[in-house]
Structure formats: structure tokens, C-alpha cells
Amino acid sequence: MKFKKQIFGFMDMLRFTKLVPNRRKALESGANTPLPQHYRVNEMAKALHPGRMEVEVTAVRPLTDRMTELTFRRTDAEAFPFFRAGQYVSLQGTVEGSVVSRPYSISSSPREALENKLTLGIEDAGFFSDYLNRQAKVGDRFLMTEPAGEFHYETLRDHKQIVCVAGGSGITPFVSMAKSRKEGDEPYEMLLFYGARDAAHLAYKAELDALAAEGVLKVVYVLSDETREGYEHGFVSAELMARYADLQKVTFFLCGPAAMYAFIQKELAPLGLPLKAMRKDATCCGARNVENPRTFTLTVHIRDKVCTVPAREDETLLVAMERAGIQAPNKCRAGGCGYCHSKWLGGDYLVADGRDGRRAADRKFGFIHPCVTYPQADMEIDVPPAE
Fold it and tell me: Which of 99, 241, 247, 330 is the most buried (most CB within 10 A)?
């Protein structure tokens, strides 16, 4: 080992001694010297951060009566970029003339991405998701953003043991996290509480049971509407979780509907846990409950184009643009990532409760996130073009 270190150190010195002569040679070559056609640093950056990717469906598998797994491959490259288990991608397609997109947590492992395989578990909940569940087939092509999101484990921030709570399609990031731990890429100890109405609505159960049998994680299934031997009954309460772990010495990862978040936060409130002890996967901002919603006019500037579209007060500006066929940039659709960051030019609006992820400077100088902004009058905005 000592000999190898000496050899590598000598090679580093040789490269250093050639550095200055090589630079002098390049500078003396003159202004007419052709520039390189490819830069390795740019090629590496493109591989790590491709922006939007062209993908094709390679397999469709029913998981439950409301949930389907789609497997994708990239058609514009040989592999997906590496990601952190727990992150999401945003899938975009055209349905009935509307350009629509939605973020979905990845259920495959980061290593599978390097083999040009990426899977999404999609629940039948919404216009685009319903289409993907019922009509998507092998060979269909879509656009997909590169993986993103803060819902993943961090060694310096999180406890060694993590308590994961999943509801419905919220199981998908935890499948990825369990696979990643099996492959040796993550160091945590994983305890998973998976809640559903009944056993028939437990997606990925066979995969989770197999991983549990290998000691990768411990799974506790919780059924709210069914009593069955070997399953917990009711909801994922603090009392239930305390039976399996010391809740003061864990980090919580929650993924599911907003009602589940509210329930568990109320359950854990008496423990006085620090803010960093709980990680929540952001959910899409949906329609507002407005009786007899009004319809306004939304004027959209995108580079040198100006479009005028109808915008209902119970739907976000992003949805209004998508219904009109405008390819507005978006990723998380929850107000957090800032990818849809747009300039407000006029008109009253309302930001969804708890969704205002803008910086103070954005609020001061009139920028909004259309994915969580609802019109309250005729509006005008300047939107950056989608990549």
C-alpha cells in the first residue's frame, strides 16, 4: 500500500511539472488555433444534470386496483443520472391537447438508474395520473425531468435509525430507499409503517416482504378498515410507533396524503421533537374548494410570445397554462423547488396556505410560483421558457 501511494504521488508530480509548459504551448499557438469540439467537464455536467430526458415505457405492471407501476428507459442516452433514494422526477406528456406534467417519487434504486431503468408507482388520482394508469402502454414516450428533491437521508442531519410512514402511493420512495440500503449505498436502519384501508391496497407488498426477510428493513402494516392477523389495525399513532422504536432517537420520513401529515404531526407534538427530526415529502398543490369559481383572463409572456388564456380561481396558474397547451416549466408542483419561478406583472392572486416557498427577495420584487398561485382577478405574468 505504501509503495502504491509513492507511485501515485510521483505520477501527480509528473503531471504538475507538465502543467506550465502545456499552458505556454497553448498560449503561443495563436488566435487561429481551433477550439476543442468537446470539453470533458461539460460532458460530465450533461451526464449528471441532463435537464429534460426523453423516455419510453418498457413495462406496465398493476400494483393494486388504483395503482400501476411504469418502467422507463432513456431513449436519448444509455443511462439515467444517479440520484438519491427518495427523490422524484416530473413526467410530462400531452393528453387531449393539454400539455400536462406531475411529479412522481422513484421506486427503483439509484443503481438501477445506471442500468437505464427507472420505475414509478402511480396512483389513480388526478387527470394525468388517471391517464397513465389506464392508457399508458409499452412504447409510449414522454419527457422526464432529472431527479430532484430534498426527501432523502443525510448522514450529518439524520439519526442512524429512520422511521418511515407511508400512506397510499406514498410507499414509492421507501421502496427505493430500502433497495438502496440493500445495495449498500445507505447506512441507516429502516423501520417502515405502511398504512392502507385494507390488505388489497398494499402496493409492493411482495417486494417489501422479501426485503424484510433479508433483514434490510422491518415493515409494520397498518390497516384502517380491516382486521387481519399479523397486521396492526387503526392508524399510525405515536403509541403504535413507540412500541417498535424510541421516538426520541429517530428521524421521521413521512410520505402520503396531507391528512396523514396532520394526524402524525399532532400525535408527535407532545414529544417536543426538533424541526429537523421530521421530513415530509411535498405533495402537489391541488384545486381549491371554491363554490361557483370565477374565471379570469391570464396573460402569459414567454420570451417574444404573448398568450391569453382563461384561468379559474379554484385552479393554479400552472394548471390554467397547461389546459391551454402552454409548456410552462415545473417540477415539484408544491411551491418548493422554484423551477416555475415567474415574474408577476399585474393582478391579484392568492398563494396556497403553507406553500409559499419564495425567498424574501422574490416576494419583495414581485416573483411568484405559478404551481401554488391562484388568480383572484385578471392577471399578467412573465414565465421562463421550459428547457
Answer: 330
What helix, strand, coil percent values describe the chain, rounded to 5? 30, 30, 40
The 8-class DSSP code of residue 2 comes to H
pLDDT tens for each residue of 192-238: 999 999 999 999 999 999 999 999 999 999 999 999 999 999 999 99
* Helices 172-182 + 205-213 axis angle, to 10: 30
Nearest to 282 by CA among 254, 316, 309, 306: 254
Residue 38: what pLDDT?
78
Phi, psi (5° rounding) for residue 304? -100, 10
One-letter amino acid for residue 21 of the chain: P
Three-state secondary-structure class, residue 131? helix
- The DSSP-derived string for 307-357 is EEEEEETTS-HHHHHHHTT-----SSSSSSS-TT-EEEEES-EEEPTT---
Q: What is the mean pLDDT of residues 143-163?
A: 95
Q: Find all residues with CB under 8 Å of 32, minimum gap 6, and list them.
A: none
Q: What angle do CA 268, 271, 274 make, to 5 degrees?
A: 90
Does the pLDDT value for residue 339 go beyond 90? Answer: no
Q: Contact at 8 Å (CB) between 224 and 234?
A: yes
Which set of grid coordinates corresponds to residue 37? 469540439
The answer to whether the CB of 190 falls within 8 A of the CB of 181 is yes
Amino acid type, 108 = S
Please state the separation of Cα 239 from the chain's center in Å.
Answer: 30
- pLDDT exceeds 50 at position 4: no
| Interior/surface letters 87-112, b for 16+ CB within 10 angstroms, e for the rest | bbbbbbbeeeebbbbbbbbbbbbbbb
3-state secondary structure 57-118: EEEEEEEECCEEEEEEEECCCCCCCCCCCCCEEEEEEEECCEEEEEEEEECCCHHHHCCCCE
Instruction: For residue 99, give the nearest of 385, 338, 339, 305 by alpha carbon.
Output: 385
Tell me the pLDDT tens digit for each residue of 257-303: 888 999 999 999 999 999 999 999 987 888 888 999 999 999 999 98
With a threshold of 0.90, does the pTM exceed it? no
CA distances from 102 to 2, 154, 286, 329 (A): 53, 26, 11, 11
Closest CA to 327 of 128, 49, 98: 98
